[in-house]
Amino acid sequence: MGLTAKEHSPGVYFIGGGEQRLLATRNLTPGRKVYGEELIVIENIEYRLWNPSRSKLGAAIAKGLKHNPIVPGSKVLYLGVASGTTCSHVSDIIGNLGHVWGVDFAPRPIRDLIDHVARYRMNISPIFGDARQPREYSLQVPMVEVLFADVAQPDQAEIVVKNANIFLKKGGYAMFSIKSRSIDVGRDPVEIFSEQVKVLVARGFSVEELIELDPFEKDHALALASLV
């Protein structure tokens, strides 16, 4: 049986054949890889396989995320973008009509994002900045429909709220990767996930999904919340 591509949600695909079921996005830059991922061509369309062990968003989708608000045309603020592994797949999904602003405070990953990813993808704007100080980059980022946060800080939920207050449109979504060990290595991760979600709820969010990311990411969860 040949490989087929079945759309999971707008811009996200499962590549299958026999018992295979591999996560993928349609490559915005055909012929070019970002992190050594495999490229697969089906019916003259090139897809990039998406490794869920290297992406919190990919892991959440692989674990059954019901609603992915990142769709073609979306405007996305990405906190903790690093060198752009997940951001590159977000770039594929949103296409040329969308845009992602990627913030990180580490110089080396931002440099790698610029040199190896954003140089070839016009829908990515790298920002060297501290996600705890969103006012510092407020002139560079417009209002967005989706805020994606992957920051390893003890005040992770507060960072999401601070940025959402400035940049997230009413009715928009926050996708929040919760890293329990960055908050407290000695406590039950499930308790920490619950506490972080409560911070969002107290600040006006409605939490729609909370997905633990094992076995792809140990002691991690991803929360999907809408700003009501």
Shape: globular
Helix content range: 10-25%
**Unreliable residue runs:** none
Determine the strand fraction and express it as a percent band: 25-35%
CATH superfamily of the largest domain: Vaccinia Virus protein VP39
- Main sheet record: 7 strands, mixed
Number of helices: 5
Count all strands and give the number: 12
The succession of helices and strands, N to C, reads: EEEEEHEHEHEEHEHEE
Mean pLDDT: 95
Instruction: Examine the secondary-structure arrangement and name the CATH architecture of the largest domain.
Output: 3-Layer(aba) Sandwich
Strand order of the largest sheet: 8-7-6-9-10-12-11
* Alpha-beta content class: alpha/beta
Our count of domains comes out at 2
Tell me the Rg in angstroms: 17 Å
Q: Oligomeric form of this entry?
A: single chain
CATH topology of the largest domain: Rossmann fold
